[in-house]
UniProtKB/TrEMBL annotation:
Sequence similarity: Belongs to the peptidase M24A family. Methionine aminopeptidase type 1 subfamily.
Record-given protein name: Methionine aminopeptidase
Organism annotation: Micromonospora zhanjiangensis
Claim: Signal is one of the keywords in the record: no
Chain positions covered by the region annotation Disordered: 230-272
Gene3D superfamilies: Creatinase/methionine aminopeptidase superfamily
Gene name as annotated: map
Listed cofactors: Co(2+); Zn(2+); Mn(2+); Fe(2+)
Amino acid sequence: MIELKSADEIGRMAVTGQFVGELLAELSGVAAVGVNLMDLEHHARRRIAERGAKSCYWDYAPSFGRGPFRNVLCLSVNDAVLHGLPRDYVLRDGDLLSIDMAVGIDGWVADSALSFVVGTPDPADLRLIEATEVALAAGVAAAQPGGRLGDVSAAIGEVARSYGYGVNGEFGGHGIGRTMHEAPHVPNSGRPGRGLKLDPGLTIAIEPWLCRSTDKIKVDEDGWTIRSADGSRTAHSEHTVAVTTAGPQVLTGRPTPGANPADSTRRPAAAS
């Protein structure tokens, strides 16, 4: 069942989204060469507890994975792209890190992810990250009231292929609101004009993720961490988005460097 949210309920999700966006921006600033992944995990745990929020990841036990998940972040490094388990790993110069998090505040959830390079970037990694960000922006722009879910999926897939990357269909975006994963599934490739009608009040997480030289994946022995099948680098971008009568509204916008977070998250943004 798909629940359409009222304007007030979207506003409550936006409160959660602002916290998620600000914490992701903060974590990207903390991450540096020599920082342990567990330092990022414990930093996030402290911030979530201070805010009175609740992690959607802690004790999460879906049909996949080897649960329950006992962390508040997914931290995926280099060839890992989704569901990376925080572990005792010290970031090295040139590592490509993806951070994904979802929390609830007062019963309303927001989910977001970003990828970036720690230290000296490889131009090929920056291009891969850019492709996920441009695909995310295209998916957000396609989430117009009266449109179809296939418009969003097609926009994402078109950008990915224009950059020369394949699209994996096993994992994609999802509905979100009172819980982290709700209907509908939001594929990262599709046909425009097809699928669910995008009615105002629909809230979805749009999350393109790409591997540099394959569209195949494999799962680590930990049962959670998803990697590119050929060991190539990966990237992941995600926002929680509401379909409104005025158009798509990003609820997890992140503050720009040097900006006042309170100012940067008041207005919807297309993507980070």
